[in-house]
Amino acid sequence: MSNVPDELRYTREHEWARLDETGKVTIGITDFAQEQLGDVVYLDLPALEGEVVAGESMGEIESTKSVSDLYSPLTGTVDEVNTECRDNPAAVNQDPYGTGWMVVINPTDVEQFDELMSSDEYESFLAEMAGEDAN
To answer: Among 33, 64, 100, 113, which is most exposed with the fewest C-beta within 10 angstroms?
Structure first.
């Protein structure tokens, strides 16, 4: 089973979001997503101070298996881009919830964070997906 930290919120597209005490939100992809992708070789991340919109693509992630869109869990302005992760995409595989984070945004509506899935809801979603794959 994938690692699903309790303090994070999740999307159906397998991004995670961490709200800090200043109201900023760090975003990355889940352990499940990096496992499915395989070795990550390239990241196309949004520009600093660029706008991102909840549910819309904010970049791409390329692995040895495929290219996938990265979706923003919340609407806001990009406050920080993890250039170390962009320059060393393997960090996404090695530590998706730590050094593999992708961007920090200043959300326009922090309440969107509460609308994301909790860890329990995300684990149920993963189990549901696994059940569908078994059929």
So the answer is: 64
